[in-house]
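Need a sequence for this fold. Nothing fancy.
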């Protein structure tokens, strides 16, 4: 439609047709994608569906997310219906995904609306663990890399769905992120990820390879915050020695120190948060343990989880605000290391989410509602809102290789000077840029390029 050429993918009005899908309303926007409630053209009764449109043309994240979702078929993961390209302003092509619409609320908010019991928590955690089991399993070989309460939606029937696979990865996928930190939310990163980042502080191109154990650890952090309303105090600390700084592991302060909960749930959370990856167990083993505990009889599992008398939330580290204002994550972490600060406190003690670009794969929460925390427990101070947009992404941490095939609308070989032919397409070299390349540019042989686009063809109804 010609009207679609004059609107931005970040704000598609109702009635806009994207492929075979008609936009009904916008329900959320992140730094890389916007999510819309949509209906299938000519089959309104089949919907609704979640339509996720990239904010940047030719964004490779969507290709990878779509491929990962296409491999997962599980009741606790949104089903993928279609992936395609939408022609937007100036003839540029924006990738999009169409998924199941999940009518629910984020996990932490769901807990705020109920008198959460240990049995309820165990059942929800088991469902998310089963979703991770499918993600990690044969035929998928993937990792989610951003497991947290905001990415778990709970329906009215207490059916949990793990969403937002935009940071996900699978074996053989192309490299997108070229610098530290790895994708995901800092508070939920595993001890082995923090150690790798510390050991490679002066090697910004070093890449941490996330494993299924990282997702299990993040699920443990999610469970800890779900039942206590807080993140656990730091378990990784920087110690100054004669030989220099080194990281040391501290004992976990167990959740039962803050709240009353069943012994089985407390033990499961401690297990998922073990420093040694092998001690956490697989996602399938966690799910089995949670399901078994949820079936056991006993009054303790059905009592509402409550804050212990005299327990209060911990204070965030004073240097966290300095970190927020730092221009890059790496400079901030180097400064923290130089001052022998507690590295783990960045992720473990902060009482608010670090403001990093986050993709939104499924949003079924009303715009503008705050995360209310956990009723009867510590008041949650997490202030994430649906629709908020973080600072401009990709200028530091994203470097994308030239794709193996030309992007939609790109000029094809033979190429005219000064264009360069790469993988069958024509590319313009950006003389003033060096890797890591900025958004909408690509890396090839240590140079940055942008695709040379063919002029848009006029619609058949337009005059010649």
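Here you go.
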């Amino acid at each position: 439609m010609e009207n679609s050429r004059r609107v931005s993918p970040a704000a598609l009005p109702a009635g806009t047709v994207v492929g075979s899908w008609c936009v009904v309303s916008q329900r959320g926007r992140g730094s890389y994608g916007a999510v819309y409630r949509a209906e299938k053209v000519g089959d309104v009764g089949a919907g609704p569906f979640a339509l996720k449109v990239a904010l940047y043309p030719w964004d490779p994240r969507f290709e990878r997310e779509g491929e990962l979702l296409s491999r997962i078929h599980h009741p606790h993961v949104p089903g993928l219906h279609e992936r395609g390209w939408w022609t937007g302003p100036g003839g540029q092509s924006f990738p999009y995904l169409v998924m199941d619409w999940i009518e629910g609320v984020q996990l932490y908010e769901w807990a705020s609306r109920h008198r959460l019991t240990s049995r309820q928590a165990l059942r929800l955690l088991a469902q998310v663990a089963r979703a991770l089991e499918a993600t990690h399993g044969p035929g998928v070989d993937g990792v989610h890399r951003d497991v947290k309460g905001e990415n778990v939606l709970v329906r009215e029937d207490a059916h949990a769905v793990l969403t937002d696979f935009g940071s996900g990865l699978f074996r053989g996928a192309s490299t997108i992120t070229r610098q530290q930190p790895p994708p995901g939310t800092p508070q939920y990163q595993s001890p082995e990820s923090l150690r790798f980042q510390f050991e490679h502080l002066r090697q910004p191109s070093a890449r941490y390879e996330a494993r299924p154990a990282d997702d299990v650890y993040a699920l443990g952090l999610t469970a800890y915050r779900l039942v206590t309303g807080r993140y656990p105090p730091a378990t990784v600390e920087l110690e100054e020695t004669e030989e220099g700084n080194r990281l040391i592991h501290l004992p976990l302060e167990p959740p039962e120190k803050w709240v009353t909960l069943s012994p089985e749930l407390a033990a499961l959370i401690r297990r998922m948060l073990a420093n040694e990856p092998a001690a956490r167990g697989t996602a399938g083993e966690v799910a089995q343990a949670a399901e078994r505990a949820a079936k056991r009889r006993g009054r303790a599992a059905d009592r509402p989880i409550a804050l212990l008398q005299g327990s209060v939330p911990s204070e965030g580290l004073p240097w966290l605000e300095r970190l927020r204002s730092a221009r890059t994550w790496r400079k901030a972490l180097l400064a923290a290391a130089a001052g022998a600060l507690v590295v783990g406190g960045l992720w473990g003690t902060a009482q608010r989410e670090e403001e990093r670009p986050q993709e939104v794969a499924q949003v079924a929460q009303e715009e503008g509602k705050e995360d209310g925390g956990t009723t009867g427990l510590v008041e949650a101070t997490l202030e994430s809102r649906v629709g908020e947009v973080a600072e401009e992404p990709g200028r530091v941490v994203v470097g994308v290789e030239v794709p193996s095939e030309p992007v939609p609308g790109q000029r094809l070989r033979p190429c005219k000077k000064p264009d360069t032919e790469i993988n069958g397409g024509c590319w313009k070299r950006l003389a003033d840029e060096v890797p890591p390349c900025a958004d909408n540019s690509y890396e090839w042989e240590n140079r940055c390029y942008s695709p040379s686009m063919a002029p848009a063809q006029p619609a058949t109804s337009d005059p010649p």
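For context: DSSP finds twelve helices and 19 strands in the chain.
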